[in-house]
Amino acid sequence: MGRFDLVEKAWAAGCRVALLDAGQDVAGLARQAVADGADLLAVAGGDGTQALVAEVAARHDLPFVVIPAGTRNHFALDLGLDRDDPAAVLEALTHGVELRIDLGYAADRVFVNNASFGTYASVVTDPAYRNAKARTTLRTLPGLLTGEDAPRLRTRADRTYVDGLQALLVSNYPYGRAVDAAHPGRRKRLDSGLLGVVCVRVGNTAQAARVVRGPRSGGLIRLSAGVVVIEADTDALPVGIDGEHVVLPSPVVCRSAPGALRVRVPRRRPGTPRAGGAAADWPRVARLALGRPFPDREKDPDGSGFIAAWAAGFAFGFALRRYRTGDGQEGPDRTAEFARNLGGLLAAISLLVFGAVLLGPALEHLSWRIILYAVLSLTIVRMLPVALSLAGSRLRPPTVAYIGWFGPRGLASVVLALLVVEEHVHGMELVGRVVAVTVGLSVLLHGISAVALAERYGRWHEKTAATTPDLREGTPSPEAPARRRFGPLDKPEM
To answer: What are the structural domains, with CATH classification, of the chain?
Structure first.
Protein backbone atom coordinates (compact mmCIF):
# COMPACT_ATOMS: atom_id res chain seq x y z
CA MET A 1 0.00 0.00 0.00
CA GLY A 2 2.95 2.27 0.52
CA ARG A 3 3.70 2.10 -3.20
CA PHE A 4 0.43 3.94 -3.90
CA ASP A 5 0.61 6.29 -0.88
CA LEU A 6 -2.86 5.15 0.13
CA VAL A 7 -2.51 6.13 3.78
CA GLU A 8 -1.30 9.65 3.04
CA LYS A 9 -3.93 10.25 0.38
CA ALA A 10 -6.70 8.95 2.63
CA TRP A 11 -5.60 11.28 5.42
CA ALA A 12 -5.53 14.16 2.95
CA ALA A 13 -9.13 13.34 1.99
CA GLY A 14 -10.19 13.67 5.63
CA CYS A 15 -10.41 9.96 6.47
CA ARG A 16 -9.57 8.29 9.74
CA VAL A 17 -7.17 5.46 8.83
CA ALA A 18 -6.55 2.25 10.76
CA LEU A 19 -3.79 -0.12 9.65
CA LEU A 20 -4.65 -3.81 10.04
CA ASP A 21 -2.36 -6.32 11.65
CA ALA A 22 -2.27 -9.94 10.57
CA GLY A 23 -5.22 -11.82 12.01
CA GLN A 24 -7.03 -8.70 13.20
CA ASP A 25 -10.85 -8.76 13.23
CA VAL A 26 -11.63 -6.43 10.32
CA ALA A 27 -15.42 -6.73 10.81
CA GLY A 28 -15.06 -5.83 14.48
CA LEU A 29 -12.94 -2.83 13.56
CA ALA A 30 -15.65 -1.71 11.09
CA ARG A 31 -18.35 -2.07 13.75
CA GLN A 32 -16.27 -0.01 16.17
CA ALA A 33 -15.87 2.70 13.52
CA VAL A 34 -19.65 2.84 13.13
CA ALA A 35 -20.05 3.10 16.90
CA ASP A 36 -17.57 6.01 16.88
CA GLY A 37 -19.75 7.91 14.39
CA ALA A 38 -18.31 7.01 10.98
CA ASP A 39 -20.49 8.16 8.10
CA LEU A 40 -18.65 6.06 5.48
CA LEU A 41 -16.66 2.83 5.49
CA ALA A 42 -13.77 1.95 3.17
CA VAL A 43 -11.33 -0.93 3.20
CA ALA A 44 -8.24 -1.79 1.18
CA GLY A 45 -8.00 -5.53 0.69
CA GLY A 46 -9.09 -8.54 -1.26
CA ASP A 47 -12.60 -9.78 -1.96
CA GLY A 48 -12.94 -11.66 1.33
CA THR A 49 -12.04 -8.54 3.30
CA GLN A 50 -14.40 -6.44 1.18
CA ALA A 51 -17.27 -8.80 1.96
CA LEU A 52 -16.74 -8.57 5.73
CA VAL A 53 -16.81 -4.75 5.77
CA ALA A 54 -19.59 -4.57 3.17
CA GLU A 55 -21.82 -6.56 5.51
CA VAL A 56 -21.30 -3.97 8.27
CA ALA A 57 -21.90 -1.08 5.88
CA ALA A 58 -25.11 -2.65 4.56
CA ARG A 59 -26.42 -3.36 8.05
CA HIS A 60 -26.02 0.30 9.03
CA ASP A 61 -26.92 1.69 5.56
CA LEU A 62 -23.59 3.49 5.23
CA PRO A 63 -21.77 4.24 1.96
CA PHE A 64 -18.97 1.82 1.19
CA VAL A 65 -15.79 2.42 -0.83
CA VAL A 66 -13.95 -0.53 -2.36
CA ILE A 67 -10.15 -0.08 -2.53
CA PRO A 68 -8.67 -2.98 -4.54
CA ALA A 69 -5.57 -4.17 -2.74
CA GLY A 70 -5.89 -7.96 -2.92
CA THR A 71 -4.77 -10.65 -5.33
CA ARG A 72 -7.61 -10.80 -7.84
CA ASN A 73 -10.07 -8.08 -6.81
CA HIS A 74 -12.99 -9.49 -8.82
CA PHE A 75 -15.45 -7.27 -6.97
CA ALA A 76 -13.53 -4.14 -7.94
CA LEU A 77 -13.28 -5.43 -11.50
CA ASP A 78 -17.06 -5.76 -11.82
CA LEU A 79 -17.50 -2.27 -10.37
CA GLY A 80 -15.28 -0.94 -13.15
CA LEU A 81 -12.53 0.23 -10.78
CA ASP A 82 -8.88 0.59 -11.77
CA ARG A 83 -7.19 -2.38 -10.09
CA ASP A 84 -3.74 -1.17 -11.14
CA ASP A 85 -4.10 2.11 -9.23
CA PRO A 86 -5.98 1.60 -5.95
CA ALA A 87 -5.39 5.23 -4.93
CA ALA A 88 -7.56 6.39 -7.86
CA VAL A 89 -10.59 5.02 -6.01
CA LEU A 90 -10.13 7.67 -3.29
CA GLU A 91 -11.66 10.16 -5.71
CA ALA A 92 -14.99 8.59 -4.75
CA LEU A 93 -14.65 10.16 -1.29
CA THR A 94 -14.96 13.70 -2.64
CA HIS A 95 -16.22 13.53 -6.24
CA GLY A 96 -17.87 10.16 -6.46
CA VAL A 97 -21.29 8.80 -7.33
CA GLU A 98 -23.32 6.36 -5.32
CA LEU A 99 -24.64 3.03 -6.62
CA ARG A 100 -27.10 0.63 -5.04
CA ILE A 101 -25.97 -2.95 -5.60
CA ASP A 102 -27.01 -6.39 -4.39
CA LEU A 103 -25.36 -8.55 -1.78
CA GLY A 104 -25.42 -12.32 -1.72
CA TYR A 105 -26.01 -14.29 1.47
CA ALA A 106 -24.99 -17.87 2.19
CA ALA A 107 -26.92 -18.53 5.41
CA ASP A 108 -25.91 -15.46 7.44
CA ARG A 109 -22.61 -14.83 5.64
CA VAL A 110 -22.35 -12.08 3.03
CA PHE A 111 -20.58 -12.63 -0.28
CA VAL A 112 -19.90 -9.92 -2.84
CA ASN A 113 -18.68 -12.33 -5.53
CA ASN A 114 -19.54 -15.97 -4.92
CA ALA A 115 -19.97 -18.86 -2.54
CA SER A 116 -18.45 -22.16 -3.65
CA PHE A 117 -19.53 -25.61 -2.50
CA GLY A 118 -18.20 -29.12 -2.86
CA THR A 119 -15.06 -29.44 -4.95
CA TYR A 120 -14.78 -25.68 -5.41
CA ALA A 121 -14.71 -25.23 -1.65
CA SER A 122 -12.04 -27.95 -1.37
CA VAL A 123 -9.86 -26.08 -3.85
CA VAL A 124 -10.09 -22.97 -1.68
CA THR A 125 -8.80 -24.91 1.35
CA ASP A 126 -5.61 -25.93 -0.48
CA PRO A 127 -2.66 -24.01 1.08
CA ALA A 128 -1.27 -23.29 -2.41
CA TYR A 129 -4.52 -21.70 -3.62
CA ARG A 130 -3.89 -18.19 -2.33
CA ASN A 131 -0.55 -17.81 -4.12
CA ALA A 132 -1.34 -19.77 -7.32
CA LYS A 133 -5.10 -19.91 -7.78
CA ALA A 134 -5.32 -20.89 -11.44
CA ARG A 135 -2.51 -23.47 -11.24
CA THR A 136 -3.93 -24.99 -8.07
CA THR A 137 -7.42 -25.24 -9.56
CA LEU A 138 -6.21 -26.96 -12.72
CA ARG A 139 -4.05 -29.37 -10.71
CA THR A 140 -6.57 -30.46 -8.10
CA LEU A 141 -10.00 -30.11 -9.69
CA PRO A 142 -10.14 -33.26 -11.91
CA GLY A 143 -9.06 -35.52 -9.05
CA LEU A 144 -11.43 -33.94 -6.56
CA LEU A 145 -14.35 -34.29 -8.96
CA THR A 146 -13.95 -38.05 -9.44
CA GLY A 147 -12.13 -39.30 -6.33
CA GLU A 148 -13.63 -41.51 -3.66
CA ASP A 149 -14.19 -38.48 -1.43
CA ALA A 150 -15.86 -36.41 -4.14
CA PRO A 151 -18.90 -34.71 -2.58
CA ARG A 152 -22.46 -35.31 -3.71
CA LEU A 153 -24.57 -32.20 -3.52
CA ARG A 154 -28.21 -31.43 -4.23
CA THR A 155 -29.61 -28.02 -5.02
CA ARG A 156 -32.91 -26.32 -5.72
CA ALA A 157 -32.69 -23.03 -7.60
CA ASP A 158 -36.18 -21.57 -7.38
CA ARG A 159 -38.23 -24.35 -9.05
CA THR A 160 -35.34 -26.28 -10.61
CA TYR A 161 -33.95 -29.32 -8.76
CA VAL A 162 -30.57 -30.84 -9.63
CA ASP A 163 -28.80 -33.67 -7.79
CA GLY A 164 -25.63 -35.73 -8.09
CA LEU A 165 -23.39 -32.64 -8.13
CA GLN A 166 -19.71 -32.62 -7.27
CA ALA A 167 -19.32 -28.83 -7.25
CA LEU A 168 -21.51 -25.78 -7.22
CA LEU A 169 -20.82 -22.06 -7.48
CA VAL A 170 -23.41 -19.46 -6.42
CA SER A 171 -22.57 -15.93 -7.53
CA ASN A 172 -23.97 -12.50 -6.85
CA TYR A 173 -25.46 -12.25 -10.40
CA PRO A 174 -24.45 -14.72 -13.15
CA TYR A 175 -20.92 -14.60 -14.51
CA GLY A 176 -20.23 -14.27 -18.20
CA ARG A 177 -18.41 -17.55 -17.84
CA ALA A 178 -17.64 -19.66 -14.80
CA VAL A 179 -15.51 -22.79 -14.90
CA ASP A 180 -13.20 -22.35 -11.93
CA ALA A 181 -13.14 -20.13 -8.90
CA ALA A 182 -9.92 -18.44 -10.00
CA HIS A 183 -11.21 -17.18 -13.36
CA PRO A 184 -15.00 -16.91 -13.12
CA GLY A 185 -15.35 -14.19 -15.77
CA ARG A 186 -17.16 -10.89 -15.34
CA ARG A 187 -20.59 -9.81 -14.23
CA LYS A 188 -22.22 -7.13 -16.35
CA ARG A 189 -24.28 -5.77 -13.48
CA LEU A 190 -24.78 -6.14 -9.75
CA ASP A 191 -28.31 -4.83 -9.26
CA SER A 192 -30.65 -7.46 -10.70
CA GLY A 193 -31.66 -9.32 -7.53
CA LEU A 194 -30.54 -12.59 -9.13
CA LEU A 195 -28.01 -15.22 -8.17
CA GLY A 196 -26.02 -17.11 -10.78
CA VAL A 197 -25.63 -20.86 -10.30
CA VAL A 198 -23.03 -23.08 -11.97
CA CYS A 199 -23.38 -26.81 -11.24
CA VAL A 200 -20.76 -29.45 -12.06
CA ARG A 201 -21.90 -33.05 -12.57
CA VAL A 202 -19.40 -35.50 -14.08
CA GLY A 203 -19.08 -39.28 -14.17
CA ASN A 204 -15.40 -39.88 -14.88
CA THR A 205 -11.99 -38.26 -15.12
CA ALA A 206 -12.35 -37.50 -18.85
CA GLN A 207 -15.53 -35.52 -18.24
CA ALA A 208 -13.85 -33.72 -15.35
CA ALA A 209 -10.95 -32.73 -17.60
CA ARG A 210 -13.38 -31.34 -20.17
CA VAL A 211 -15.03 -29.25 -17.46
CA VAL A 212 -11.68 -27.66 -16.60
CA ARG A 213 -10.82 -27.05 -20.26
CA GLY A 214 -13.93 -25.25 -21.42
CA PRO A 215 -17.28 -23.74 -20.37
CA ARG A 216 -19.23 -25.68 -23.03
CA SER A 217 -18.69 -28.99 -21.31
CA GLY A 218 -21.72 -31.20 -20.94
CA GLY A 219 -20.99 -31.51 -17.23
CA LEU A 220 -21.88 -27.86 -16.58
CA ILE A 221 -25.39 -26.68 -15.75
CA ARG A 222 -25.99 -22.93 -15.56
CA LEU A 223 -29.01 -21.42 -13.83
CA SER A 224 -30.25 -18.14 -12.42
CA ALA A 225 -32.48 -17.83 -9.39
CA GLY A 226 -33.51 -15.63 -6.51
CA VAL A 227 -33.06 -18.32 -3.85
CA VAL A 228 -30.76 -21.35 -3.99
CA VAL A 229 -30.77 -24.17 -1.44
CA ILE A 230 -27.74 -26.49 -1.24
CA GLU A 231 -27.74 -29.68 0.80
CA ALA A 232 -25.74 -32.87 1.24
CA ASP A 233 -25.86 -36.02 3.33
CA THR A 234 -23.66 -34.41 5.99
CA ASP A 235 -24.61 -32.10 8.82
CA ALA A 236 -22.18 -29.38 7.70
CA LEU A 237 -20.89 -28.08 4.38
CA PRO A 238 -17.49 -26.53 3.68
CA VAL A 239 -18.01 -23.29 1.76
CA GLY A 240 -15.65 -20.84 0.10
CA ILE A 241 -17.03 -17.34 0.76
CA ASP A 242 -15.23 -15.00 -1.64
CA GLY A 243 -12.16 -17.24 -1.35
CA GLU A 244 -12.33 -17.60 2.44
CA HIS A 245 -13.01 -21.07 3.86
CA VAL A 246 -15.92 -21.46 6.31
CA VAL A 247 -18.14 -24.32 7.46
CA LEU A 248 -21.93 -23.85 7.49
CA PRO A 249 -24.72 -26.16 8.71
CA SER A 250 -26.55 -28.06 6.00
CA PRO A 251 -28.76 -27.17 4.18
CA VAL A 252 -27.37 -23.78 3.18
CA VAL A 253 -29.83 -21.22 1.84
CA CYS A 254 -28.34 -18.66 -0.52
CA ARG A 255 -30.32 -15.55 -1.36
CA SER A 256 -29.91 -12.15 -2.94
CA ALA A 257 -30.47 -8.94 -1.01
CA PRO A 258 -31.37 -6.47 -3.80
CA GLY A 259 -29.94 -2.97 -3.39
CA ALA A 260 -28.63 -3.73 0.09
CA LEU A 261 -25.24 -2.01 -0.31
CA ARG A 262 -24.50 1.66 -1.03
CA VAL A 263 -21.23 1.82 -2.96
CA ARG A 264 -19.35 5.05 -3.68
CA VAL A 265 -17.29 4.94 -6.87
CA PRO A 266 -15.37 7.54 -8.91
CA ARG A 267 -17.30 9.24 -11.69
CA ARG A 268 -14.81 7.94 -14.22
CA ARG A 269 -14.21 4.21 -14.08
CA PRO A 270 -12.00 2.71 -16.80
CA GLY A 271 -13.48 -0.76 -16.52
CA THR A 272 -17.18 0.12 -16.51
CA PRO A 273 -19.09 -2.42 -18.64
CA ARG A 274 -21.02 -1.11 -21.61
CA ALA A 275 -24.58 -0.08 -20.94
CA GLY A 276 -27.16 -2.59 -21.93
CA GLY A 277 -26.58 -5.41 -19.50
CA ALA A 278 -25.44 -8.93 -20.15
CA ALA A 279 -25.64 -10.44 -23.60
CA ALA A 280 -28.76 -12.51 -24.04
CA ASP A 281 -28.47 -16.29 -24.08
CA TRP A 282 -29.99 -16.58 -27.56
CA PRO A 283 -29.90 -20.41 -27.77
CA ARG A 284 -31.91 -20.55 -24.56
CA VAL A 285 -34.31 -17.89 -25.87
CA ALA A 286 -34.74 -19.93 -29.06
CA ARG A 287 -35.49 -23.07 -27.06
CA LEU A 288 -38.10 -21.16 -25.11
CA ALA A 289 -39.68 -19.76 -28.27
CA LEU A 290 -39.83 -23.22 -29.88
CA GLY A 291 -41.24 -24.88 -26.77
CA ARG A 292 -38.26 -27.23 -26.39
CA PRO A 293 -37.29 -28.32 -22.85
CA PHE A 294 -34.08 -27.06 -21.30
CA PRO A 295 -31.44 -29.67 -20.44
CA ASP A 296 -31.54 -28.62 -16.78
CA ARG A 297 -35.32 -29.07 -16.64
CA GLU A 298 -35.44 -32.72 -17.69
CA LYS A 299 -36.18 -33.87 -14.15
CA ASP A 300 -38.52 -31.04 -13.35
CA PRO A 301 -40.54 -30.39 -16.51
CA ASP A 302 -43.12 -27.63 -16.72
CA GLY A 303 -46.12 -27.55 -19.02
CA SER A 304 -46.80 -24.78 -21.47
CA GLY A 305 -49.65 -22.51 -20.46
CA PHE A 306 -50.11 -21.47 -24.09
CA ILE A 307 -50.52 -25.05 -25.29
CA ALA A 308 -52.85 -25.82 -22.39
CA ALA A 309 -55.00 -22.77 -23.20
CA TRP A 310 -55.10 -23.70 -26.90
CA ALA A 311 -56.10 -27.29 -26.12
CA ALA A 312 -58.79 -26.14 -23.68
CA GLY A 313 -60.19 -23.65 -26.21
CA PHE A 314 -60.18 -26.31 -28.93
CA ALA A 315 -62.13 -28.73 -26.73
CA PHE A 316 -64.55 -26.01 -25.63
CA GLY A 317 -65.17 -24.90 -29.20
CA PHE A 318 -65.77 -28.47 -30.29
CA ALA A 319 -68.34 -28.91 -27.53
CA LEU A 320 -70.10 -25.68 -28.53
CA ARG A 321 -70.25 -26.73 -32.17
CA ARG A 322 -71.78 -30.03 -31.20
CA TYR A 323 -74.52 -28.80 -28.87
CA ARG A 324 -77.02 -25.97 -29.20
CA THR A 325 -78.11 -23.78 -26.32
CA GLY A 326 -81.78 -24.69 -26.61
CA ASP A 327 -83.21 -21.16 -27.06
CA GLY A 328 -82.65 -20.88 -30.82
CA GLN A 329 -79.37 -18.98 -30.55
CA GLU A 330 -76.26 -21.01 -31.04
CA GLY A 331 -73.67 -21.08 -28.29
CA PRO A 332 -70.66 -20.00 -30.37
CA ASP A 333 -72.25 -16.65 -31.26
CA ARG A 334 -72.82 -15.61 -27.67
CA THR A 335 -69.54 -17.13 -26.53
CA ALA A 336 -67.61 -15.24 -29.21
CA GLU A 337 -69.08 -11.95 -28.01
CA PHE A 338 -68.27 -12.82 -24.40
CA ALA A 339 -64.73 -13.84 -25.38
CA ARG A 340 -64.17 -10.55 -27.22
CA ASN A 341 -65.37 -8.50 -24.25
CA LEU A 342 -63.34 -10.55 -21.79
CA GLY A 343 -60.28 -10.35 -24.01
CA GLY A 344 -60.57 -6.58 -24.24
CA LEU A 345 -60.87 -6.29 -20.45
CA LEU A 346 -57.87 -8.55 -19.81
CA ALA A 347 -55.81 -6.70 -22.42
CA ALA A 348 -56.59 -3.38 -20.74
CA ILE A 349 -55.59 -4.80 -17.33
CA SER A 350 -52.39 -6.24 -18.81
CA LEU A 351 -51.38 -2.89 -20.31
CA LEU A 352 -52.19 -1.14 -17.04
CA VAL A 353 -49.93 -3.52 -15.09
CA PHE A 354 -47.28 -3.23 -17.82
CA GLY A 355 -47.16 0.55 -17.50
CA ALA A 356 -47.20 0.52 -13.70
CA VAL A 357 -44.69 -2.28 -13.08
CA LEU A 358 -42.46 -2.91 -16.10
CA LEU A 359 -42.15 0.32 -18.04
CA GLY A 360 -40.89 2.53 -15.20
CA PRO A 361 -37.77 0.47 -14.33
CA ALA A 362 -36.98 0.09 -18.05
CA LEU A 363 -36.91 3.86 -18.52
CA GLU A 364 -34.24 4.16 -15.81
CA HIS A 365 -31.81 2.24 -18.06
CA LEU A 366 -32.80 3.88 -21.33
CA SER A 367 -30.12 4.15 -24.01
CA TRP A 368 -30.04 5.37 -27.59
CA ARG A 369 -29.61 1.79 -28.82
CA ILE A 370 -32.84 0.68 -27.16
CA ILE A 371 -34.71 3.71 -28.55
CA LEU A 372 -33.31 3.07 -32.03
CA TYR A 373 -34.38 -0.56 -31.95
CA ALA A 374 -37.85 0.38 -30.70
CA VAL A 375 -38.31 2.82 -33.59
CA LEU A 376 -37.05 0.27 -36.12
CA SER A 377 -39.27 -2.41 -34.60
CA LEU A 378 -42.38 -0.25 -34.99
CA THR A 379 -41.54 0.68 -38.59
CA ILE A 380 -39.27 -1.49 -40.73
CA VAL A 381 -39.18 -4.64 -38.58
CA ARG A 382 -42.94 -5.08 -38.47
CA MET A 383 -44.24 -3.07 -41.45
CA LEU A 384 -41.99 -4.73 -44.04
CA PRO A 385 -43.21 -8.29 -43.24
CA VAL A 386 -46.81 -7.06 -43.39
CA ALA A 387 -46.18 -5.52 -46.82
CA LEU A 388 -44.58 -8.74 -48.05
CA SER A 389 -47.46 -10.85 -46.76
CA LEU A 390 -49.95 -8.64 -48.64
CA ALA A 391 -48.03 -8.78 -51.91
CA GLY A 392 -50.40 -9.92 -54.67
CA SER A 393 -53.52 -8.87 -52.76
CA ARG A 394 -53.97 -5.80 -55.02
CA LEU A 395 -54.40 -3.60 -51.96
CA ARG A 396 -53.35 0.02 -52.44
CA PRO A 397 -50.24 1.38 -50.62
CA PRO A 398 -52.33 3.47 -48.15
CA THR A 399 -54.12 0.30 -47.04
CA VAL A 400 -50.91 -1.68 -46.74
CA ALA A 401 -49.31 1.12 -44.71
CA TYR A 402 -52.42 1.40 -42.50
CA ILE A 403 -52.44 -2.34 -41.77
CA GLY A 404 -48.69 -2.35 -41.17
CA TRP A 405 -48.87 0.54 -38.73
CA PHE A 406 -51.90 -0.54 -36.72
CA GLY A 407 -52.09 -4.28 -37.39
CA PRO A 408 -49.63 -6.18 -35.14
CA ARG A 409 -50.29 -5.79 -31.43
CA GLY A 410 -47.69 -5.50 -28.68
CA LEU A 411 -49.43 -7.49 -25.92
CA ALA A 412 -48.01 -10.79 -27.18
CA SER A 413 -44.51 -9.33 -26.85
CA VAL A 414 -45.15 -8.61 -23.18
CA VAL A 415 -46.34 -12.17 -22.56
CA LEU A 416 -43.34 -13.69 -24.35
CA ALA A 417 -40.96 -11.38 -22.47
CA LEU A 418 -42.48 -12.56 -19.19
CA LEU A 419 -41.72 -16.14 -20.22
CA VAL A 420 -38.06 -15.18 -20.66
CA VAL A 421 -38.08 -13.49 -17.25
CA GLU A 422 -39.69 -16.53 -15.61
CA GLU A 423 -37.00 -18.83 -17.03
CA HIS A 424 -34.19 -16.52 -15.78
CA VAL A 425 -32.49 -16.52 -19.18
CA HIS A 426 -29.09 -14.82 -19.16
CA GLY A 427 -29.46 -11.30 -20.50
CA MET A 428 -33.18 -11.22 -19.72
CA GLU A 429 -32.84 -7.71 -18.29
CA LEU A 430 -31.82 -6.37 -21.69
CA VAL A 431 -34.59 -8.33 -23.44
CA GLY A 432 -37.13 -7.08 -20.91
CA ARG A 433 -36.05 -3.46 -21.27
CA VAL A 434 -36.16 -3.60 -25.06
CA VAL A 435 -39.65 -5.15 -25.05
CA ALA A 436 -40.93 -2.71 -22.43
CA VAL A 437 -39.67 0.37 -24.27
CA THR A 438 -40.89 -0.92 -27.64
CA VAL A 439 -44.39 -1.72 -26.37
CA GLY A 440 -44.54 1.54 -24.43
CA LEU A 441 -43.56 3.52 -27.52
CA SER A 442 -46.15 1.57 -29.51
CA VAL A 443 -48.91 2.44 -27.05
CA LEU A 444 -47.90 6.10 -27.14
CA LEU A 445 -47.49 6.53 -30.90
CA HIS A 446 -50.42 4.37 -31.96
CA GLY A 447 -52.66 5.99 -29.37
CA ILE A 448 -51.75 9.49 -30.51
CA SER A 449 -52.12 8.70 -34.21
CA ALA A 450 -55.19 6.42 -34.10
CA VAL A 451 -57.94 9.01 -34.60
CA ALA A 452 -56.10 11.21 -37.09
CA LEU A 453 -54.88 8.38 -39.30
CA ALA A 454 -58.20 6.54 -39.16
CA GLU A 455 -60.04 9.66 -40.32
CA ARG A 456 -57.45 10.28 -43.04
CA TYR A 457 -57.68 6.71 -44.29
CA GLY A 458 -61.47 6.91 -44.24
CA ARG A 459 -61.44 10.03 -46.41
CA TRP A 460 -59.00 8.40 -48.83
CA HIS A 461 -61.11 5.25 -49.07
CA GLU A 462 -64.32 7.20 -49.65
CA LYS A 463 -62.75 9.36 -52.36
CA THR A 464 -60.98 6.46 -54.10
CA ALA A 465 -64.02 4.16 -53.99
CA ALA A 466 -66.13 6.83 -55.69
CA THR A 467 -63.78 6.98 -58.70
CA THR A 468 -62.63 3.34 -58.78
CA PRO A 469 -65.56 0.88 -58.89
CA ASP A 470 -63.29 -2.20 -58.82
CA LEU A 471 -61.28 -1.02 -55.80
CA ARG A 472 -59.99 -4.11 -54.00
CA GLU A 473 -60.61 -2.55 -50.59
CA GLY A 474 -64.31 -2.24 -51.47
CA THR A 475 -64.79 -5.88 -52.48
CA PRO A 476 -66.74 -7.84 -49.86
CA SER A 477 -64.74 -10.65 -48.37
CA PRO A 478 -66.26 -14.13 -48.84
CA GLU A 479 -67.51 -15.65 -45.62
CA ALA A 480 -65.34 -18.46 -44.41
CA PRO A 481 -67.09 -21.84 -44.73
CA ALA A 482 -68.37 -23.07 -41.41
CA ARG A 483 -68.53 -26.65 -40.31
CA ARG A 484 -71.94 -28.20 -39.91
CA ARG A 485 -73.02 -28.03 -36.31
CA PHE A 486 -74.71 -31.06 -34.84
CA GLY A 487 -77.40 -31.01 -32.24
CA PRO A 488 -77.47 -33.41 -29.30
CA LEU A 489 -79.57 -35.95 -31.25
CA ASP A 490 -77.98 -35.40 -34.66
CA LYS A 491 -75.59 -37.84 -36.16
CA PRO A 492 -73.00 -37.01 -38.76
CA GLU A 493 -73.63 -38.19 -42.26
CA MET A 494 -71.74 -41.31 -43.25
So the answer is: 2-101 (3.40.50.10330), 111-269 (2.60.200.40), 305-469 (no CATH)
